[in-house]
Amino acid sequence: MPTIVDRIKQFARSPQGRRATEEVRRAAADPRRRAQAQRLLGRLRGRH
Fold first, then answer.
1. I need a labelling partner for 28 at 20 to 30 A (CA). Which of 1, 18, 39, 46 fits?
2. What value does the mean pLDDT of the chain take?
3. Rounded CA gap, 2 and 6, in Å?
4. Spans of biased composition, class Basic and acidic residues (predicted)?
């Protein structure tokens, strides 16, 4: 039975995984999206 890490690696190598990775890279390059992600992470971290 593959571990979760193995399954993630398998997905990352698949065409869908490559597409998802490229979308995330494009979103990270956009300053507005980056700020949005930073706010979200700040809120998630604030809950602990």
1. 46
2. 91
3. 6
4. 19-33
